[in-house]
UniProtKB/TrEMBL annotation:
GO CC annotation terms, alphabetical: membrane
Matching InterPro entries: AAA+_ATPase, ABC_SmlMolc_Importer, ABC_transporter-like_ATP-bd, ABC_transporter-like_CS, ABC_transpr_FbpC, P-loop_NTPase
Pfam families reported for this sequence: ABC_tran (PF00005)
Gene3D superfamilies xref list: P-loop containing nucleotide triphosphate hydrolases
Organismal lineage: Bacteria, Bacillati, Mycoplasmatota, Mollicutes, Acholeplasmatales
UniProt keyword terms in alphabetical order: ATP-binding, Cell membrane, Ion transport, Iron, Iron transport, Membrane, Nucleotide-binding, Transport
Protein name as it appears in the record: ABC transporter ATP-binding protein
Domain ABC transporter, residue spans: 3-221
GO molecular function, one term: ABC-type ferric iron transporter activity
Matching SMART domains: AAA
Amino acid sequence: MYIDINKIDFEYDKNNLVLCSCSTGIEQGEIVAILGKSGSGKSTLLRVLSGLEIPKNGEITIDGEILVSNRHFVEPNKRKIGMVFQDYALFPHLNIIQNIQYGLMKKSKEEKEKIALEMLKLISLNEKYTKYPHELSGGQQQRVALARALAPNPKMLLLDEPFSNLDKDLRKQIRQDLKRIMNQQNMSCIFATHDYEDAKDIANRILYLEDGKIVKIEKNV
Ligand SMILES: Nc1ncnc2c1ncn2[C@@H]1O[C@H](COP(=O)(O)OP(=O)(O)OP(=O)(O)O)[C@@H](O)[C@H]1O
């Protein structure tokens, strides 16, 4: 498997496991939904994957590299994992192109421009690149957040409730956009949601999380 999540236990407070022996594998290019009620541990699992939290037990590898185990810990900024949050977290004082280029500090000016143009094309916002986040619709901001996360070419993308601020019609449209973009990039992606329709519409597989345990895995055909 491209990504292996093996028996992850996590607790914020002692003797109160929020994740309990969570295991799954993810293929390259696969989209996996984590579906669960509020408090089931979805965000925590994403935080552990991104390196913002350290598990008590368990191991995570990506493309053969151990990210965390009882002897290893790779810092979040070295993991090559992109993350998109519910509120998009775009920088309000930066325009679209600057937001997209934010994670490309180490690249040359020419490379930054090339990547940003590719990303703008991917999210179909070519003509709006000098606009600021507040001048965009929720759906457009969502696409910019996605482009910003994809620009550094991560190995995996994590999305935490990416559609929750969008109305029903826009949600449907953005789900299709996301699916197209992920497929085009052959990107492995895990997204947390409490909405079955979101999961059913775009995921290859759905993991049901209840009280920090994966209680069911459904292949989406
Ligand atoms: N920083 C923290 N300190 C202590 N407990 C926490 C912390 N963050 C989350 N928790 C607890 O861990 C459990 C899982 O929370 P988590 O945010 O992962 O759930 P979730 O499924 O993402 O919920 P939601 O859909 O509401 O975002 C909850 O019981 C929550 O109260």
